[in-house]
Amino acid sequence: MAKLHVTTTVNGEPMEFLCEPYETMLDALRGQLGLTGSKEGCSSGDCGACSITLDDRLVCSCLMLAAEAEGHEIRTIEGMANGERLHPLQQKFLEHAALQCGICTSGMLVASDALLKKNPDPTEEEVRFWLAGNLCRCTGYDKIVRAVMETAAEMRQGIQEAAQ
């Protein structure tokens, strides 16, 4: 079977790769593109560890075929940090100890970032609902939710200060 040629943008960089027609985006990210931040937790879209954004829409990369990336923009956990500087969500996850084993962390961060882009002022209930597709067996979610809520508040305050 012939491999498919895929042209896409990953974390702001134009990328091209060859993939098998049945290859998942998760496999292409990890195996071909060397982006190992997205984790394989379940391979059925139930855990959220492999979460990425496709044109700003949150998706499980284990359920997406790599060929579906053609012409689209992908963002992974590696695309969140700005060089050596952590993304504000990453910083708050560290400050709040909102991670333990690390399997769910990249998916939680990508999902949280996607939420804050859609809704910069979420309620706690909205954060919990948005992250319901991301399973964590270690933290109990409270520290994660607090980290997201505090990031949202600080981002809003920064926007208000910049407007003044």
From TrEMBL:
<dbReference type="InterPro" id="IPR006058">
    <property type="entry name" value="2Fe2S_fd_BS"/>
</dbReference>
<dbReference type="InterPro" id="IPR001041">
    <property type="entry name" value="2Fe-2S_ferredoxin-type"/>
</dbReference>
<keyword id="KW-0560">Oxidoreductase</keyword>
<dbReference type="InterPro" id="IPR036884">
    <property type="entry name" value="2Fe-2S-bd_dom_sf"/>
</dbReference>
<dbReference type="Pfam" id="PF00111">
    <property type="entry name" value="Fer2"/>
</dbReference>
<dbReference type="GO" id="GO:0008805">
    <property type="term" value="F:carbon-monoxide oxygenase activity"/>
</dbReference>
<dbReference type="InterPro" id="IPR012675">
    <property type="entry name" value="Beta-grasp_dom_sf"/>
</dbReference>
<keyword id="KW-0001">2Fe-2S</keyword>
<dbReference type="InterPro" id="IPR002888">
    <property type="entry name" value="2Fe-2S-bd"/>
</dbReference>
<dbReference type="GO" id="GO:0046872">
    <property type="term" value="F:metal ion binding"/>
</dbReference>
<dbReference type="Pfam" id="PF01799">
    <property type="entry name" value="Fer2_2"/>
</dbReference>
<keyword id="KW-0408">Iron</keyword>
<dbReference type="GO" id="GO:0051537">
    <property type="term" value="F:2 iron, 2 sulfur cluster binding"/>
</dbReference>
<protein>
    <submittedName>
        <fullName>Carbon monoxide dehydrogenase small chain</fullName>
        <ecNumber>1.2.5.3</ecNumber>
    </submittedName>
</protein>
<dbReference type="InterPro" id="IPR036010">
    <property type="entry name" value="2Fe-2S_ferredoxin-like_sf"/>
</dbReference>
<dbReference type="InterPro" id="IPR051452">
    <property type="entry name" value="Diverse_Oxidoreductases"/>
</dbReference>
<keyword id="KW-0411">Iron-sulfur</keyword>
<keyword id="KW-0479">Metal-binding</keyword>
<feature type="domain" description="2Fe-2S ferredoxin-type">
    <location>
        <begin position="4"/>
        <end position="80"/>
    </location>
</feature>
